[in-house]
Amino acid sequence: MTDAELAAQLAVDAGRILLEVRASGQFEGKALGKEGDRAANAFLCDALRRLRPDDGLLSEEEKDNPERLAKNRVWIIDPVDGTREYGEERSDWAVHVGLAVDREAAIGAVALPGLDGGIVLRSDAPHALPEPAERPRLVVSRTRPAREAVAVAEAIGGELVEMGSAGAKAMAVVRGEAEIYLHSGGQYEWDNCAPVAVALAYGLHCSRIDGSPLVYNNADTYLPDLLICRPEWAHPVLEEVHKLG
Description:
Elements: H1 3-23, H2 29-51, E1 56-59, E2 73-81, H3 83-87, E3 94-101, E4 104-112, E5 119-122, E6 137-141, H4 147-156, E7 159-163, H5 166-174, E8 180-183, H6 189-201, E9 205-207, E10 226-229, H7 231-244
Parallel strand pairs: 1-2, 6-7, 6-8
Antiparallel strand pairs: 2-3, 3-4, 4-5, 8-10, 9-10
């Protein structure tokens, strides 16, 4: 099984586990989110340690092992991206399984199990991007839209679309539900490694909001901002961000 096939299979299987936990009726709200995180993380970490024992591993739900810093292949996972949305039984949450190679997001799968039938978007099976909307749509947090995103939307005549998890927002651009995902409110490597790998495979622009590259497998896993957008919007958006200072 290739790395990409493994990432996709694990993301799908973890999503199935999460739906089973939710359907059990034993948990709700924050308790549901906590149990979902625990169950999905245990499955993913066990599978990766068993199937890719020589690779590093970084998970939101595991104590960080600094040994990963000496490895050029590191799996970066988020068992439930959007724990709040998952606990609220919404559909805009995701499972991230990404592989950074030489500190770049090389391979990824993002499962969206909450959608009807569930889907998984993967870096080894990109499709042509749908036609863009005439008026650019920017996906933003439904609770705390980034200041830069709000200002850029106003400057380019864009429309704000509220959505939950980072993975759901990034995949909205991949799926043609938005043209731009601009985030500046703080993230960690597991929030965007897999989505960035998928977005790159689909031909989207991915960078920090100053235009610099996204670099993974750092000692400090904080990665505060990113831009994922259709290529034609990269320069206009980066220019507007630069104007904001």
